[in-house]
Design brief:
heterodimer; A: alpha/beta; 8 strands; globular; B: 148 residues; alpha/beta; five-stranded parallel beta sheet; 5 helices; binds cobalamin; binds guanosine-5'-triphosphate; binds magnesium ion; cobalt (chain B); isomerase (chain B); metal-binding (chain B)
Chain lengths: 331, 148
């Protein structure tokens, strides 16, 4: 393994809950690289205890305001909280103004609430590339509940399924054509649907539309409650927490499965990234010829891609080879 | 594993005390974003412990305080609180309307630079970039540091 500073002291300090260590560890995870990987490995055994709750929904629906009120409710129930608020990075400059936190002002004096703003850094899907690692840091630091706010919903936001045990899709009346704002994919990932800004006159219509959409779901799918909130007045938030807790106790076996899917996805992403870097930097003559043939249309892109990948991978067996499979490959 | 790469500089742009003039801080936040930095922007009226908590959790490299109509000498008190919280490596700049007599007090407290009305975008970006890089270089690497 490459010589890198030992992450162990940092792992110990963050597991003791030291906020500076937690903050530093999150930065390290965002940076990536071998120190991040070593730290992640060191804290992984201490994860899996926190309740993870995701808030997603169209821009301006009131996600941050609702998170602020929801966190207050979690605190009332005696739980410590970590919040990860993801905002988009500018595609032009790569910079960002991370503004979700503006609406989470009431927790500035409470050490029981740790808030971290994360920029999406070009990652699609409403989250950031390092989101799993960031959540693991807060989990290992002993936070009882971890609340994740995603970038306003697009269509590709199903990633939240891997990250959050309970997914809350926040809607609000009057955001254009209401139901159009909630894409089908988003509905399928929801554990709970919220119509926020229930003080607005069109709210009952939005509730009706959502319930109508839910009635079209396949049979056997879990019930999805539709709740109304007025986040700016803390109304409906206690009911929301009750629904979240009910949802979490209903399906405890999900956690292990989600974790496996999550690890699988991380491995797939890591492998894809590594392969991409290798192929982009590859100037082997035979490979250049393959590219030329693809450019001339003699072979299709998929074939060229598969050939490149297999040549790069070199048929090296996995380090922890299952004996039978290794035998079969050798013979 | 995640791809190792460079992380944009992270800057907290905020205002402490009763001063509500926020036009300058909004403009500066946009300047820094457009220069590729991640800006944690807060509304006015923050407290010193609040700023320390924010800077800790967000792991910022630089703090920019906009100060137009406060007791500017609140800034040295903030500097002291930052050092006490182990954030001595974080660079601090101030902008706004600060009388000259007070500017020297801020400098003595460790503020790197005070910008006045009409400060140019390039100057601000250049200063914050340099300060952020210095802050990263000087930070004791917490992950190899012994338990305090
Ligand atoms: C607009 C204004 C207001 C508006 C504010 C609107 C708003 N939301 O911001 C209103 C009308 C509300 C207002 C109210 C008051 N104001 Co007034 N206001 C001004 C005025 C005319 C312009 C300020 C401004 O917006 N400039 C435009 C911005 C873009 O410039 P800037 O803030 O200076 O920012 C630049 C630089 O300073 C620097 N910068 C600023 N912040 C930062 C931060 C960082 C990190 C960096 C790197 C750089 C940086 O970069 C910016 C771009 O160049 C100034 C006079 C003046 N000429 O500056 C008085 C002034 C600031 N106000 C003043 C006063 C006294 C008040 C009141 C107390 C008046 C009263 N008695 O009620 C109230 C207080 C309100 C409050 N709660 O804070 C005094 C302050 C005196 C002092 N320094 O001791 C001033 C200087 C007027 C004067 N000459 O007396 N005000
Ligand atoms: N009337 C009303 N307004 C609300 C309510 N909740 C939030 N708002 C307002 O809606 C606006 C958007 O709120 P945010 O919490 O920033 O919404 P968001 O979904 O986090 O927005 P993005 O992060 O930008 O996608 C703010 O002006 C809030 O004050 C509510 O229950 N009723
Ligand atoms: Mg938000």
């Amino acid at each position: 393994m490459a010589p890198s500073p030992s992450p162990i002291p940092l792992a110990q300090r963050l597991r003791a809950g030291d906020p500076r260590a937690v903050a530093r560890a999150i930065s390290l995870m965002e940076e990536g690289g071998s120190a991040a990987a070593a730290l992640h490995a060191a804290i992984l055994p201490a994860t899996g205890r926190a309740l993870t709750i995701g808030f997603t929904g169209p821009p301006g629906a009131g996600k941050s305001t609702l998170v602020d009120a929801f966190v207050a409710e979690l605190r009332k129930s005696g739980r410590t909280v970590g919040v990860v608020a993801v905002d988009p990075s500018s595609p032009l400059s790569g910079g960002a103004v991370l503004g979700d936190r503006i609406r989470m002002g009431r927790h500035t004096d409470d050490p029981g609430v740790f808030i971290r703003s994360i920029a999406s850094r070009g990652h699609l899907g409403g989250l950031s590339r390092s989101i799993h690692h960031v959540v693991d840091v807060l989990d290992a630091a002993g936070r009882d509940a971890i609340v994740i706010e995603t970038v306003g919903a697009g269509q590709s936001e199903v990633e939240i399924v891997d990250v959050a045990a309970v997914r809350i899709v926040v809607n609000a009346p009057g955001l254009g054509d209401d139901v159009q704002a909630i894409k089908a994919g988003i509905l399928e990932i929801a554990s709970i649907l919220v119509v926020n800004k229930a003080d607005l006159p069109l709210a009952p219509r939005t509730v009706r539309q959502l319930k109508a959409m839910l009635s079209l779901r396949r049979e056997g799918e879990a019930d999805v409650p539709v709740l109304e909130t007025i986040a700016s007045e803390d109304r409906g938030v206690a009911e929301l927490l009750a629904a979240v807790d009910a949802c979490a106790t209903l399906r405890p076996e999900d956690a292990a499965a989600r974790r496996r899917t999550r690890i699988r996805r991380l491995v797939a992403e890591g492998a894809a990234g590594e392969m991409r870097r290798r192929i982009l930097a590859w100037d082997d003559a035979a490979f250049l010829e393959t590219l030329a043939r693809a450019a001339r249309g003699e072979i299709d892109i998929d074939t060229a891609a598969r050939a490149a990948m297999e040549a790069q991978a070199g048929g090296v067996p996995l380090p922890v080879a299952v004996p039978q499979k290794a035998d079969r490959r050798a013979g | 594993m995640i791809h190792a790469g460079t992380r944009p500089l992270r800057v907290l742009v905020t205002k402490i005390g009763l001063d509500g003039h926020d036009r300058g801080s909004r403009i500066v936040a946009a300047y820094l974003r457009d220069a590729g930095m991640e800006v944690i922007y807060t509304p006015p009226w923050q407290t010193i412990p609040g700023v320390v908590k924010l800077a800790t959790e967000e792991d910022v490299d630089v703090i920019g305080i906009s100060s137009l109509a406060t007791d500017h000498l609140i800034v040295p008190k903030m500097m002291e609180a930052l050092r006490a919280a182990g954030l001595g490596h974080v660079g601090v700049v101030v902008g706004g309307i600060v009388p000259e007599a007070e500017q020297s007090a801020l400098a003595a407290a460790g503020v790197s630079r005070v910008f006045g009305p009409g400060a140019a975008r390039e100057e601000i970006v250049e200063c914050v970039t340099a300060l952020g890089q210095k802050s990263r270089a000087e930070r004791v690497d917490d992950y190899s540091e012994a338990n305090p």
